């Protein structure tokens, strides 16, 4: 590491390097300073600074120095790091390492790295470089233009440029690039013509914004603020509407009008600082509301204390404060009736006291308590707002007096300045939905609110139109802006008490096209050309239409380009179709003196009355009907066509939305309404003469999300286990629910959870009555939303237990609710000691709504809709992956998108692939298994078909990469070759096709989605089992979708295997959508296998679609037959051999167990044989219990849990005992070979042997059951009774001990052989060498099979499940294990053979004559009972044999040593 320079010229505090402080130049550490100093490192320059500043002694004495605190402010720095690599694999490794890094990374006490992301990837091209941005990053518009974008520029950004920026710039976060910054720009114009200013005002007032100046700059608003003009020798500067001069400018330059609110509208000069008029600040209006809240509580004192301890005002938000809170009324039950008492400073109104009666003991005249709860919802009133001094008299007067109170009615006109017509329509809708009267106080209420007049600019002037039921007096007609500011309401005659019906006027908008050249002067209402033409046309049209019934006025509204299109308005109190048709027919002839008429005259009536919204609140899932039609007095004739629009988009009939015509009205019926149906609606009715148009808005308040009640609808309870069963019910926090049992409301307690309202009722459980009980959880408001819980109470043993589904007995069902934000339920049935899911309808509410909306999706809506879908799926990916119903809905949505869309660009396809990426992940594997078991619909095939359809509509060239998907769309000439995601090599040679587009989509995890069935799949299993394939095949490579707009007959694909251990039966396949009644399967038609080399499988096909490879995961059926024969024959031989072995051991027991070594050796042999015998018997029993696919095709292969678990336990125990007794034999050999001079008694060896031989297996077997059985993971679920491997890895409890013992015995053999060889060295006799070699050979031949080394072949079958040789060898050696024990453990013993043949040699005489031997007792007297007595009772017995020699009269003794 390079040492730092002694002096750092870049450090301005370089005193530190000379050992002195930076200011006072004193040495450090300072010998006179009693305070310990500290050093601080700067994170910018990385230099070290002192924690405090030292001054000279004159200014800072040592005893007064203080330690300066370290600054705690945090500084954030963004560092760009450039990494150069030439290998894409290295880059992927870097990306993987960054994704796997846990952040933040602490560098030291003051510095940490909070985030590391890859922003930009630059790679060389043929002519230079391309720099692409990673996800969530993009290039700014300047870089896209300067360096040329290699993809589309959208919203002022791009994702790729054709160069490396010279300034070292990298991609920027999209959120920063798209964030809007608002600027106010003042522009000064020099104009000499006042008409120009008026013209500019007119343009700006009629303009629509925003105005795009470029891809990233929009003008949102333009206003004239200040107009300055010369006044004699000076200037006057006047402010436009809603703008004022500041008080300082008014004083400095002198106001030329009145100064009000410290502002003025005009000053006598142009400000020298270039300042202009500022927007006028409108003071905020404060509204005060009194809100009554009803609280149900059993402890009012607690509520009083809660209110008393709070200090007011309490701020709810930046605009809302609670100024005070008081308890006014407390109602409680007194016997069979209620009493309502007022709190301090509150009393009941006198009418309530008289109506309901005062409480007993209430002597106050003011009536503080009444004997009922008022039905009108009124509460006690404040004594400061009411006069209760004469309440008692007032009560009687209220009952006796017939004089009504005096009412005063006021008509208040309010003028609103609004620039947006949509706001007016929204205001109309709001006012029409309000219920009147509205009480403001006890003495004041609003009886009605209506819009009377709407004035709008029209060609430089104004037009004021009356709303329905309002009209102008005749003298006001035709005036631009009348002095009377509002239309008159309906008039009433007070003398006759009759109301004069209002006169309704209709403004029919007419258009006629004149064969006349259009000039710019016709767009200026102030020009002579405009005025002259307007006057001429108005004279003609008035003459033509004044004869119609109810005619009021006619005037020209505007001229438009297109020859000259004249818009005029006919005002009338009635519209009769025939009269308008006659006038329209005569108008062209009358217009000839002005100009010929082109085409026909059109008439349109825009109804000022909005479309009537639903009368009541609608909840999602219900049906909404909107009605559109002309009012009375407006006849449009027979309706030939009706049309509806939603948010400007035309609505079409579909399964959810229907448009019908009923008489003079058009009805829009929307079924299964969703929140997305909130918006603006427009209806058009085309009549014979007039077209009727009506608009309206369905507000957010009219459509609300429906209550989703979540509970366990089927509950099973064991009455002997629990005394109370909790019943939970939840709903969204907008609603409230209650538990009911019949008509009875049950007691509940509220559970606090975010976003939902939950209640709990604890129902007492008794074993007296075991009849099912039903409960209902009902929503308070709106009514009609409820769910039922059925409780099944039982007394017997529990068969199934689960934290999710609870307890139950065989064939019981349990139905539970879904998680938060989901709808539906999950139903499971209790079968074979576990809950089995049989139905899952849980679906995310957001996805369900998108599914509904997609039913009427149009291609113009696809980009926004797909973006919303992608955002929702990615944001809820955990819940999406775990819900099969949600995934099925997403597949349906994608299928709709594929059918609707004709062209697909990169942003849309990117959103689609982001969505698909979530639902094909490993987390979704179980959900897809459920979907693939659906017999009626194959969601996996539908998903792949949708993606193929979408790929056909792609336009442009681009690359899209997600975590699991790679899409590449490009063009090629003649041939094409590509390495797709480093997993598939695609080669299309010599096509003779030029400039052709090719699209490839590589899915790395589509094996989670697609079933592995092929064309030879047994169709009968669809009905017998499921839609899933058999388990013999698997998709062993990525799936690639290839689309080319040309015919290709030669394509080679090379796949990288996913599971490299599989090598059996590779099949080159494509997904055929049509076979199996359009369920689809993998088919090899047109594809052939080429090679399987170095874990790369090469295929060749003569067509293009979606390809992959299938490989066998198990041995083929024909080999299974061979293995079955080997197993059954071998087990039979083994069983017979073990029985023979035990008989022989019993027969020769007395003769061969003369010493402790021989005794323990044969004890081990007998127990080894006995353990294997019992294990093989259990194996035969287990095989008869389970069913396999070859012997029982088409049947249920699930094993019975009870019998199968019992057989598995004993097999596990006795197979382990086999190995442990082998270990006992090995340890005995080790003990007698290595520890020659050590001695151990038989009883000790027996105790150790049985403890190890049976105690060890028992402990392991019991622990395995205890750990795995509670979760139903002890045994396999199907095909065989054996330890589980897939879920719990219980099989390791057999494999690990067995292989450990095999390993120990191998070590023992090596040690024994080594010891025997060392003992043989130095003994030069040839006979001894031969004997040593014979002993070594016998050890290898006998001990190796005896210790079960052949079981190690089982590990090979687990590692390579398709290796034929390993399976055959394992089946052969292990099924004949009993035969090996008989041969190598018993028959290979020469002494046993001698005893069996009665040829045991005795000691030879000196004369060489043949000896004879007799045994006392004889072996023929051996019996099983005798064997047990010998095992238990006789120890240290040496058998003495007496022999008589013909040449010797002496007796000899010989010892049998084994």
Low-confidence stretches: 53-72, 392-404, 491-502, 1022-1030, 1321-1337, 1399-1458
Q: Radius of gyration in whole Å, from Cα?
A: 49 Å
Terminal CA distance: 74 Å
Structural class: alpha+beta
In short:
This protein is 29% helix and 24% strand. It is an alpha+beta fold and 1458 residues long.
Describe the model.
With 1458 residues, the protein is an alpha+beta fold. The protein contains 31 helices and 73 strands. Strands 31-32-30-33-41-40-36-37 form an eight-stranded mixed beta sheet. β40 (679-686) and β41 form a beta hairpin. The longest helix has 36 residues, at 1117-1152. The chain is globular, with a radius of gyration of 49 Å.
Keywords, please?
1458 residues; alpha+beta; eight-stranded mixed β-sheet; eight-stranded antiparallel β-sheet; 73 strands; disordered C terminus
Q: Topology, please?
A:
Blueprint: E1 39-41, E2 48-50, H1 88-100, E3 105-106, E4 112-113, E5 120-124, E6 129-133, E7 137-138, H2 141-146, E8 160-161, E9 172-173, H3 174-177, H4 194-206, E10 211-212, E11 218-219, E12 226-231, E13 234-239, E14 243-244, H5 247-253, E15 266-267, E16 278-279, H6 300-308, E17 314-315, E18 321-322, E19 329-334, E20 337-342, E21 346-347, H7 350-356, E22 369-370, E23 381-382, H8 391-400, H9 421-432, E24 438-439, E25 445-446, E26 453-458, E27 461-466, E28 492-493, E29 498-499, E30 506-514, H10 528-545, E31 551-561, E32 564-572, H11 577-591, E33 597-606, E34 618-619, E35 624-628, E36 641-646, E37 649-650, E38 657-662, E39 665-670, E40 679-686, E41 690-698, E42 703-704, E43 710-711, E44 714-718, E45 724-732, E46 737-741, E47 744-745, E48 749-753, E49 756-764, E50 773-779, E51 786-794, E52 800-802, E53 806-808, E54 813-817, E55 822-823, E56 825-831, E57 834-840, E58 843-844, H12 845-853, H13 862-875, H14 877-881, H15 884-900, H16 906-919, H17 925-932, H18 939-952, E59 958-961, E60 965-972, E61 976-980, E62 984-988, ...
Parallel strand pairs: 33-41, 34-42, 44-51
Antiparallel strand pairs: 1-2, 3-4, 5-6, 6-8, 7-9, 10-11, 12-13, 13-15, 14-16, 17-18, 19-20, 20-22, 21-23, 24-25, 26-27, 28-29, 30-32, 30-33, 31-32, 35-39, 36-37, 36-40, 38-39, 40-41, 43-45, 45-49, 46-47, 46-50, 48-49, 50-51, 52-53, 54-56, 55-58, 56-57, 59-60, 60-63, 61-62, 62-66, 63-65, 64-71, ...
């Amino acid at each position: 590491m390079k040492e730092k320079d002694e002096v750092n010229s870049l450090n301005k505090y370089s005193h530190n390097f000379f050992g002195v402080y930076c200011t006072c130049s004193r040495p450090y550490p300072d010998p006179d300073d009693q305070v310990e100093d500290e050093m601080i490192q700067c994170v910018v320059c990385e230099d070290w600074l002192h924690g405090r500043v030292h001054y000279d002694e004159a200014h800072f004495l040592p005893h007064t120095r203080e330690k300066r605190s370290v600054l705690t402010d945090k500084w954030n720095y963004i560092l760009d790091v450039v990494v150069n690599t030439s290998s894409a694999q290295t880059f992927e490794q870097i990306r993987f390492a960054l994704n796997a890094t846990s952040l933040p990374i602490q560098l030291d006490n003051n510095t940490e790295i909070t985030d590391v992301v890859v922003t930009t990837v630059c790679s060389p091209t043929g002519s230079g470089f391309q720099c692409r941005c990673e996800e969530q990053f993009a290039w700014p518009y300047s870089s896209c233009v300067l360096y040329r974008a290699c993809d589309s520029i959208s919203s002022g950004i791009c994702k790729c440029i054709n160069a490396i920026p010279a300034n070292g710039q990298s991609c920027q976060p999209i959120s920063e690039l798209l964030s809007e910054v608002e600027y106010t720009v003042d522009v000064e114009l020099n104009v000499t013509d006042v008409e120009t200013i008026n013209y500019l005002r007119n343009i700006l007032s009629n303009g629509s914004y925003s105005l795009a100046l470029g891809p990233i700059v929009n003008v949102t608003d333009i206003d004239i603020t200040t107009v300055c003009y010369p006044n004699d020798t000076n200037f006057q500067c006047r402010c436009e509407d809603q703008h004022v001069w500041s008080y300082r400018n008014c004083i400095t330059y002198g106001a030329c009008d009145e100064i009000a609110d410290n502002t003025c509208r005009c000053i006598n000069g142009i400000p020298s600082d270039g300042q202009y008029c500022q927007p006028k600040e409108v003071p905020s209006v404060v509204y005060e509301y009194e809100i009554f809240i009803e609280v149900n509580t059993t402890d009012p004192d607690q509520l009083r204390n809660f209110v008393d301890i709070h200090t007011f005002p309490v701020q709810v938000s930046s605009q809302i404060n609670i100024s005070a809170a008081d308890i006014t009324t407390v109602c409680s039950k007194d016997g069979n009736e209620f009493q309502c008492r007022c709190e301090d400073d509150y009393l009941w109104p006198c009418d309530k006291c008289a109506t309901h009666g005062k409480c007993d003991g209430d002597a106050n005249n003011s009536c503080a308590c009444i004997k009922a709860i008022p039905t009108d919802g009124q509460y006690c009133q404040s004594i400061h707002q009411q006069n209760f001094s004469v309440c008692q008299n007032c009560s009687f007067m209220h009952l006796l007096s017939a004089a009504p109170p005096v009412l005063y009615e006021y008509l208040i006109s309010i003028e609103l300045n609004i620039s947006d017509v949509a706001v007016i329509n929204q205001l109309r809708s709001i006012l029409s939905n309000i219920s009147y009267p509205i009480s403001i106080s006890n003495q004041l209420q609003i009886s009605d609110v209506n819009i009377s007049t709407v004035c709008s600019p029209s060609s430089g002037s104004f037009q004021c139109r009356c709303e329905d039921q309002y009209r102008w007096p005749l003298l006001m007609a035709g005036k631009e802006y009348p002095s009377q500011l509002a239309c008159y309401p309906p008039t009433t005659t007070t003398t006759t008490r009759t109301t004069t019906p209002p006169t309704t006027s209709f403004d029919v908008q007419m258009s006629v096209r004149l064969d006349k050249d259009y000039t710019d002067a016709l767009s200026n209402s102030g020009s002579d050309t405009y005025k002259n033409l307007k006057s001429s046309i108005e004279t003609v049209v008035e003459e033509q239409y004044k004869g119609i019934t109810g005619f009021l006025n006619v005037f020209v509204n505007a001229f438009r380009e297109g020859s000259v299109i004249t818009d005029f308005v006919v005002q009338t109190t009635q519209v009769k179709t025939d009269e308008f048709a006659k006038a329209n027919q005569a108008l062209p002839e009358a217009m000839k003196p002005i100009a010929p008429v082109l085409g026909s005259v059109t008439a349109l009536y825009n109804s000022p009355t909005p479309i009537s919204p639903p009368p009541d609140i609608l909840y999602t899932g219900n049906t909404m009907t909107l009605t559109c039609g002309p009012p009375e007095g407006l006849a449009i004739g027979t309706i030939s066509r009706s049309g509806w629009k939603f948010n400007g988009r035309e609505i079409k009939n579909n399964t959810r939305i229907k448009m019908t015509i009923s008489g003079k009205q058009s009805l829009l019926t929307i079924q299964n309404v969703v929140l997305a149906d909130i918006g603006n609606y427009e209806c058009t009715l085309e009549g014979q003469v007039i077209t009727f148009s009506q608009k309206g808005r369905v507000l957010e308040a009219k459509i609300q999300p429906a209550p989703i009640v979540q509970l366990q609808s089927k509950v099973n309870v064991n009455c002997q286990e629990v005394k109370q069963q909790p019943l939970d019910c939840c709903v969204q926090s907008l609603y409230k629910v209650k538990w009911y049992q019949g008509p009875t409301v049950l007691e509940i307690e509220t559970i606090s959870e975010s976003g939902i309202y939950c209640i709990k009722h604890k129902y007492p459980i008794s074993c007296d009555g075991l009849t099912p009980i039903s409960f209902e959880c009902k929503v308070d408001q709106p009514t009609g939303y409820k769910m039922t819980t059925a409780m099944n109470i039982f007394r017997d043993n529990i068969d199934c237990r689960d934290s999710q589904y609870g307890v139950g007995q065989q064939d019981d069902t349990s139905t539970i609710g879904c998680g938060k934000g989901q709808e539906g339920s999950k139903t499971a049935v209790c079968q074979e000691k576990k809950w089995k899911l049989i139905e899952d309808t849980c679906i995310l509410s957001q996805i369900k709504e998108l599914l509904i909306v997609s039913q009427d999706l149009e291609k113009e809506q696809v980009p926004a809709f797909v973006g919303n879908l992608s955002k929702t799926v990615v944001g809820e990916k955990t819940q999406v992956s775990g819900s099969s119903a949600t995934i099925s809905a997403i597949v349906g949505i994608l299928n709709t998108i594929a059918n609707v869309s004709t062209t697909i660009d990169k942003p849309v396809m990117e959103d689609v692939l982001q969505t698909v990426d979530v639902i094909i992940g490993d987390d979704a594997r179980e959900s897809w298994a459920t979907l693939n078991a659906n017999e009626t619909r194959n969601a996996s095939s539908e998903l792949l078909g949708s993606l193929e359809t979408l790929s056909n509509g792609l336009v442009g060239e681009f690359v899209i990469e997600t975590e699991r998907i790679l899409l590449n769309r490009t063009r090629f000439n003649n041939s094409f070759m590509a390495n797709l995601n480093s997993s598939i090599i695609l080669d299309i040679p010599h096509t003779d096709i030029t400039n052709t587009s090719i699209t490839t989509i590589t899915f790395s995890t589509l094996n989670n989605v697609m079933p592995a069935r092929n064309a030879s799949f047994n169709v009968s299993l669809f009905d017998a089992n499921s839609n899933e394939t058999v388990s013999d095949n698997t998709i062993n490579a990525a799936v690639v979708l290839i689309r080319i707009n040309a015919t290709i007959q030669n394509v080679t694909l090379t796949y990288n295997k996913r599971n490299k251990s599989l090598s059996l039966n590779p099949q080159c396949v494509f997904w055929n959508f049509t076979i199996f009644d359009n369920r689809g399967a993998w088919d090899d038609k047109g594809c052939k296998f080429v090679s399987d080399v170095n874990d790369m499988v090469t295929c060749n096909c003569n067509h293009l679609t979606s390809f992959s490879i299938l490989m066998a995961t198990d041995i083929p059926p024909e080999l299974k037959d061979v293995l079955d024969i080997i197993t059954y024959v071998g087990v039979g031989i083994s069983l017979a051999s073990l029985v023979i072995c035990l008989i022989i051991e019993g027969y020769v027991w007395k003769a061969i167990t003369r010493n402790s070594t021989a005794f323990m050796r044969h004890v081990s042999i007998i127990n080894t044989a006995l353990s294997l015998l019992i294990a093989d018997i259990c194996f035969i029993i287990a095989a008869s219990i389970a069913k396999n696919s070859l012997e029982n095709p088409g049947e249920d292969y699930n094993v019975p849990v009870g019998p199968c678990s019992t057989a598995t336990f004993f097999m596990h125990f006795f197979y382990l005992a086999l190995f442990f007794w082998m270990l006992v034999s090995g340890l005995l050999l080790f003990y007698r070979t290595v520890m020659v001079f050590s001695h151990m008694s038989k009883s000790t060896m027996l105790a150790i042997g049985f403890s190890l031989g049976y105690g060890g297996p028992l402990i392991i077997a019991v622990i395995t059951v205890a750990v795995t059985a509670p979760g139903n993971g002890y045994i396999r679920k199907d095909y065989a009774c054996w330890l589980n491997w897939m879920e719990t890895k219980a099989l390791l409890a057999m494999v690990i001990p067995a292989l450990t013992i095999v390993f120990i015995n191998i070590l023992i053999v090596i040690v024994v052989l080594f010891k025997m060889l060392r003992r043989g060295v130095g003994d030069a006799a040839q006979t001894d060498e031969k004997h040593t070699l014979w002993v070594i050979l016998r050890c290898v031949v006998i001990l190796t099979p005896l210790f079960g080394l052949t079981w190690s072949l089982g590990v090979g079958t687990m590692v390579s499940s398709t290796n034929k040789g390993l399976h055959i060898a394992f089946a052969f050696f292990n099924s004949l294990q009993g035969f090996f024990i008989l041969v190598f453990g018993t028959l290979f013993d020469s002494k046993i053979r001698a005893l069996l043949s009665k040829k045991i040699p005795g000691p030879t005489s000196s004369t060489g004559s043949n000896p004879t031997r007799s045994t006392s007792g004889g072996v023929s007297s051996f019996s099983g009972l005798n064997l047990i007595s010998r095992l238990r009772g006789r120890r240290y017995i040496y058998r003495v044999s007496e022999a008589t020699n013909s040449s010797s009269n002496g007796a000899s003794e010989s010892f049998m040593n084994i």
